Amino acid sequence: MNRTRDRVPELTGILTAVSLALVFGAVLGAIPPRVLPRAPESALAAIPHLNAAISAAAIVTIVTGIRAIRNGDVERHRRLMVAAFGLFGAFLILYLYRITLEGPTDFAGPAAVESFVYLPLLAVHILLAIVAIPMVYYTLLLAASYPVAELPATNHPKAGKLAAGLWLVSFSLGIVVYAMLYLVW
């Protein structure tokens, strides 16, 4: 535990770099699709819908976790935030798998909506996700490397508030992007 405690910033940087490399590698086509087994088309088509449900579950989990810590229920907060991170991990694995095999989904709506609504929303969603990743890692590494009694004296409370806020907005915008891609158009 003490070794992790002394290396939280470095570990945060490493985990962030690996995560972003995987995401950008998949989005930019740097990961060859042939390295992954191909699921049936029906499974690939279900991933965006499943990821929207995972995002909604993560939002509920994060909000419930915030309420738990505000009520002083540290153990429930911990369980919920670990669950939220697990949901994020599941989302990310499914997203990376599909994007590696299929590439990004094209927007099928009107060009004006794409230019003035969809792309700005997508950009903010992506930016917040990129900023949230190191904050989430940092917060979780602090929680994992300090006893609960010492956490209030660390950056965990401040970083956790920022991470949760970024995460909530990013997940929410992700659901809006999903709706625009798969439900509206």
Structure explained in plain terms:
Helix 2 (8-27) runs parallel beside helix 4 (74-102), helix 2 runs antiparallel to helix 5 and helix 3 packs antiparallel against helix 6. The protein has a single domain, classed as Four Helix Bundle (Hemerythrin (Met), subunit A). The protein starts with a helix and ends with a helix. It has helices at 2-5, 8-27, 41-70, 74-102, 111-145, 156-184. With 185 residues, the chain is an all-alpha fold. Helix content is 79%, strand content 0%.
Radius of gyration (Å): 18 Å
**Number of separate structural domains:** 1
Q: How would a textbook summarize the main sheet?
A: none
User: Fraction of residues in helices?
Assistant: over 70%
| Unreliable sequence segments | none
Tell me the span between the first and last alpha carbons.
Answer: 50 Å
Task: State the helix count.
Answer: 6
CATH architecture annotation name: Up-down Bundle
Short description, anyone?
The chain has 185 residues and is an all-alpha fold. It is built from 6 helices and no strands.
Topology:
Elements: H1 2-5, H2 8-27, H3 41-70, H4 74-102, H5 111-145, H6 156-184
Helix pairs in contact: 2-4, 2-5, 3-4, 3-6, 5-6
Protein name: DUF420 domain-containing protein
Transmembrane segments: 12-31, 43-68, 80-97, 117-141, 162-184
GO molecular function: cytochrome-c oxidase activity
